[in-house]
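Running log. JK asked me to keep both predictions on one page so they can be read side by side. First protein, sequence followed by its tokens:
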Amino acid sequence: MPVITCIEDLRVLAKRRVPRMFYDYADSGSYTESTYRANTADFQAIKLRQRVAVNMENRSTRCQMIDQDVAMPVAIAPTGLTGMQHADGEILAARAAQAFGVPFTLSTMSICSIEDVAAATQAPFWFQLYVMRDRDFIERLIARAQAAQCSALMLTLDLQILGQRHKDIKNGLSSPPKPTLKNILNLMTKPRWCLGMAGTRRHGFGNIVGHAKGVGDLSSLSAWTAEQFDPALSWADVEWIKKRWGGKLILKGIMDVEDARLAANSGADALVVSNHGGRQLDGAPSSIQALPAIAEAVGRDIEVWMDGGIRSGQDVLKAWALGARGTLIGRSFLYGLGALGEQGVRSCLEIIRKELDVTMAFTGHTQIQNVDRSILLPGSYPV
């Protein structure tokens, strides 16, 4: 068993253990992948100011995200097909998040259903919603999240149409996946993954199959999803969903100050500066580049969070310094899940918290709430 010291260690192990089709699904961007790469590279360009001879005792990374106490300003992002990185992946990640004290967000396109995760956990989790043309299905999905006592609804706004991801096409990723010789041979090299999947009944999209009209199995799912994402999504739909939900609402996919102002005016509780992990508009700026202007414009009116490119606790601290009052991790926890299951997700969270704690101390702070832009070297960060 290799020694795990950083998120990259988890990524390398996950790449060995997860079938190529599903590993590539998680670890890729759209078209040239320029935005996908910029999400991490732009974090690395930001430099920190080291301070010395300050009291580093009694440190705390604890804070709140939409009035919920969290161990650090990090939540697990909604990611589709999580249960294909590891058998029962959403349940395992939710348990790890619960034990650690950070929020878990379940994707509409999850393998384990809302009910599966609710039955396996005690802490309330968040549910992420895509707007579909079938509004009756959306109403029932919201009702199911309410019945499961989800404590927040995260509405994703940047998937009205799908950005093309070349790797998915080349790998034959579809519903159900294409059983090509290349894929079958690759599966034969992943016995641990195959054994895990053989031991679970959860292989389809649990929130959709058997719940959406005309979708009784995986063979009918592909056609349904192709026509269901709604390109006509508008702010009126956001208002309709807000009224239907009635609880905490998070809007994900904001990359422009003008849209951020509309999000703040919508009455939502938080927005997420996000380019969908570089999986939608290739050529868009990185999330960390877009963050400061949005935080400056609306940070007093709505909680501003961000995701995209976070691979360390240092990244979390840099995002906080630039105005984010919460962050979401997607690929980082998926690497942990693919590598080591539930323990891998816990390792991911521990790695991030330790890096956040140590880096915060080196920049002269003991409380995350007191950290501001002064910890960053002038000229190294976007303004």
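And the second, directly underneath as requested:
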Amino acid sequence: MSRDRYYVGLDIGSSEVRTVIAQEVSPEEPLRVIGVGATPSLGMRRGIVVDADSVAKCCNSALEQAERMAGHAAESVVVSVGGTDIVCQDALGVIAVGRADGEVVEDDMARVLEEVQARLTMPLNREIIHVIPKNYRLDDQKDIKNPVGMKGVRLEMNALVISGSTSYLKNIARSLDQAGTSAESFVVEPLACAESVLSVRQKELGTVLVNIGGSTTSIAVFEDGDLLHLAVLPVGSGHITNDIAIGLRTSIEVAEAVKVKFGSALPEEINKKDEIDLSLFDSQEDVYVSTKHVAEIVEARLEEIFSFVNEELKKIHREGLLPGGVVLSGGGSLLPGSIDLAKRVLRLPSQIGYPKPLGGMLDQVDTPPFSTVVGLLLLAQTNSTLSYSSGKGGGILPSSVYGILEKIRKWLKQFLP
């Protein structure tokens, strides 16, 4: 493996844009982080582009920071896709096995994948981002993970299809073009975060990842190693800041500083007499506020977020039934008491998830807010993402079919001009 292979991840969030450039020294060693960039996000609202020019400037700033640090240009990037218009739906593809002896080969795998997409009727304003195989059925045998080499007549694929707004994807591509780079592939944000945070065992046991961002909270539910459900909720840690600003009758800047320094989701553990001097954050403020009152505001909004998560679990009949529990990620997960509140509301074991360890400047990316961008790098390295192009879907597949997909791509190349 060449020593000059680089990967660039770009996470365009509603509160911050983060870029990480990593170098692959060898396939056996962890990726080496050589460049990191972060800048406050402008032009995004609830994960959706509302000002493409502002998004372009933020991306350019974050990329330039990382490029200067790494000494390497980010010509193409793997980009996270978020927003409340992300939709996850089940799909089925059915084909007849092509070979006369009934053996399933890579050609059949490619055809059934195409059949899944062909069966879906997508509105003109939506694009398929990922097609994720859950399992296969060969004649009467169900729940097959890898049917290649097996024999039968009828091959079925059960898959999850994740789609997003066409305009959103085009706006992101336009912003990246203005920033001097291009999207190598798009990856739905909760999938990238899960790749970074969850272990194989957690995905097997049954776990829900809850990534609390600035204006959205995304969830990804795994069971038996497969993605079971995915959703993006229109509420995040930025709403906690807004609530504090309203409750204390102060500015957003002061409210954010109060949240970061004194925020807690456990008001019962705070003395009623404890107070916060707002003049510490703004010289024009001359009042004291109750620390317990701030904690009650934080608890109320965070409890609402977890209640929404619980509603999503009810939809798939997994409420209180995931042995792997809840793994919290994102900046909002760092609020004191978030783990205890998640346990109480969701009635599941809870913990904070941290990105898988990399090499290089690890201290800059080993926090929950960087989970998504680290996941983008890991997915780029394993080649488990397919480049997005208009009208086509990318895919992130279970590890058992990574090799199959690579063979399919090589097989298809022989027919391309």
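Observation for JK regarding the second prediction: The two ends are 27 Å apart (CA to CA).
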